[in-house]
Amino acid sequence: MRAKITYAVTAAVLVVYFVLVGSRGVMLIETGTPITIAFGVAVLVLPAIGIWFLWKNTQFVRRANQLAAELDAEGGLPVDELKRTPSGRIDRASADEVFAQRKAETEDAPDDWRTWFRLAVAYHDAHDTPRARKAMQRAIALHDGKPLPTA
Fold first, then answer.
1. What are the start-end ranges of the H helices in the chain?
2. Contact 102, 75 (CB under 8 A)
3. CA distance 141 to 148
């Protein structure tokens, strides 16, 4: 729940920032000189990219949460079996062991979105965010019957 609140607050702050930057871009364009118009257009590109990025990430998080809820309803969510240090950090050897297990499951059933979801969680636990995201994108595509993202 805390992560959802943090995401919502961060998204709201970004939207306010995009509005402020966008208004400055419009003000530059309204000045009417060629240089300020060029700067104004350039300034408007940044919020447009930011809004697109925020929208795509929000869609990704929403879809991943839907898959998690569906997997939870099936009783298939991965159990947290990782060993932790006294400070609460995940033990690297433990994460590697679980990752090897999840990778083997995915290799045995490469067309099952559930195995890709669990592999994404294992990548995340191993602090490999780019691969975790790609594995989750693959799980979402398999679930939805869409063309698979290329490696």
1. 2-31, 34-74, 92-108, 113-125, 129-144
2. no
3. 6
- Measured over the CA atoms of residue 35, residue 39, residue 42 and residue 48, the dihedral's sign is negative
Q: Return the closest-CA partner of residue 127 out of 84, 86, 83, 96.
A: 96
Q: How far apart are CA 136 and CA 120, in angstroms?
A: 5
- Per the document, the length of the chain is 151
Two structure tokens written together for 135: 């594995």
Q: Rounded CA gap, 86 and 48, in Å?
A: 45
Q: Which CATH architecture has domain 92-144?
A: Alpha Horseshoe (1.25)
* Contact present, 123 and 131 (Cβ < 8 Å): yes
From first to last of its 151 residues, the chain has per-residue pLDDT tens of: 788 899 999 999 999 999 999 999 999 999 989 999 999 999 999 899 999 999 999 999 999 999 999 999 998 888 787 888 888 788 788 888 888 899 999 999 999 999 999 999 999 888 889 999 999 999 999 999 887 766 5
